[in-house]
Amino acid sequence: MSDPHSLSGRLTETGHELSQRVYFEDTDFSGRIYHARYLHFMERGRSDYLRLVGVHHHELAREAHAFAVRHMAIDFLKAGSVDDVLTVRTAPKATTGARIVLQQEVLRDGELLIAAEVTVALIGPDGRPARLPQAIRDALARAPKTGG
Questions:
Q1: Which of 52, 57, 87, 125 is the most exposed place for a label (fewest CB within 10 A)?
Q2: Opening angle at CA 98, ends 18 and 92, nearest 5
């Protein structure tokens, strides 16, 4: 049986890496990755990064909390294609009271396809921003940083 953590990628010196294969369903009529699918790949990278540093979505949900994307800036640099194996890199940039800013990249064989900066906010049961619990702040403080 394979290690279930390998499904979540791996922590690195600067953050996290996750491998993702591009399937036909991820592409448009030209065989290139449909632009919105990159959001799916990056979401998986963010979720698995948080999981590996000890922040679990199911634990947040028990208290009616969740992360929501607050802001995203993306540079689409090159196109990927069906059957490519992508590396999604996620690295923490900053943490504030209720927000986490992450840098994300999507690469193919070391070639940068997408560069993004994503801000996620913790929201409470009322949909309003909530302060990050100390356990999450501690987990993120222990995690590798980009230094940027």
A1: 125
A2: 30
**Strand ranges across the sheet with 85-95:** 10-11, 16-21, 85-95, 99-108, 111-123, 66-76
Give residue limits of the domains in the chain: 11-142
Residue 94 burial by Cβ neighbours in a 10 Å radius (0-12, 13-18, 19+):
middle
Segment 77-92 shows an average pLDDT of 97
Query: CATH fold of 11-142, please?
Result: Thiol Ester Dehydrase; Chain A (3.10.129)
Three-point CA angle 42, 47, 53, nearest 5°: 125
The reported pLDDT for the residue numbered 142 is 86
pTM of the model: 0.91
State the catalytic residues. Answer: 28
pLDDT class of 44 with cuts at 50, 70, 90: very high
Nearest to 106 by CA among 17, 10, 11: 17
Residue with structure tokens 């890496």? Answer: 17
Q: Which of 69-78, 103-112, 128-137 shows the lowest mean pLDDT across its residues? A: 128-137
